[in-house]
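Request: Give me one sample?
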Amino acid sequence: MISLQQRSIAHFDLDCFFVSVEVQKNSTLKGKPLLVGGHGDRGVVAACSYEARRFGIHSAMPMKTALKLCPHAIVLSGDMEAYSEKSKEVTEIIANNAPLYEKSSIDEFYLDLTGMDKYFGSLQWTIELREKIMKESGLPISLGMASNKMVSKVATNEVKPNGKMQVLFGGEKAFLAPMPVEKLPMVGKETAAQLHRRGVENVRTLSEIPIPLLEAWLGKNGIALWNKANGIDESPVIPYHEQKSISTENTFRADTIDMQFLHAELVRMTEKIAFELRQQDKLTGCVTIKIRYSDFETVTKQMTIPYTCSDHILLEKVKELFQRLYDRRLLVRLIGIRFSHLVQGNYQISLFDDTQEMIALYQAIDHIKNRFGWQYLMKGTNVAAPGKRKDNHLRHIMPYQKR
């Protein structure tokens, strides 16, 4: 049996993904400082080109600030539909070639190629797959290969844009040692600041600190951080077809045709599982609606959508699907909503749709829901008539079956 330490893991990352798609759509934008995000003083930067980054611009920065740093930058609104389609195109190429892969976000993938060296070089095979992706999608993509996911991701980050690197087995710790602690995944500004205050600047120093001391400083995260600093990561590549879907359904106490009540239920249920998406740092690419009529006939309809976790976008799609599906004008016994085709991601994915106020509103809403419970803050339209719901409405998490 091959131990986890002897694995061969490749990490693919589509370089500056949103910007690359925009440049592909309009080649005259190549080499220019580009900002993808909301227009106007209240907009936010969702993505920026490498040319724009040289001016100190980064994602989640207010657009007003970014334009002060680079007044001649070109601002694009963003096209989530195009980005989602390109992501799915690259996913399909990988799915048709890789023995085992994980789609960790809209633009990142892990491949487990353990054992392939028995038949042919896994590095050469991966390089050829990278070239195939670039040729067929027209997008730049960087590649890192190592014995685990964490080191392969760091390697990818080191060779961006459009590069490739392999860290050989046994060389993980030496590869990481000279890097600033910020280079390790999940070391944010706050953790880095704590380490800097204690004189820990690079990964080598971090790797030599006793675990009990790191635990005293950072709690249970101290152990995980020590493992990262020493190049240790045993997390598996999770097959994409095992991704979960999140759903909820409600069987009513009495069958109903009250459209105001049904629409209120759609709002309530959508808000509930959209909040769960954000809690799990997930985005959905497919919405399904289910209706069961009073005669027990059950019908469903689904829609593929640009990846999102935003209530207002999902509500629009849910209502649209319901209107298309509800055509019998019979009493309704049950309605259900399911979000599937899930990928890792967070609210930053929709920065180009929203103003700073909208983003702040979502953050405030989620803060309240985290503190008091999701049901304590809902839209005003979501006040349903008493007695129509069953108390035991169900929530399901089901395996997503790849089609």
In short: The chain is about 40% helix and 20% strand.
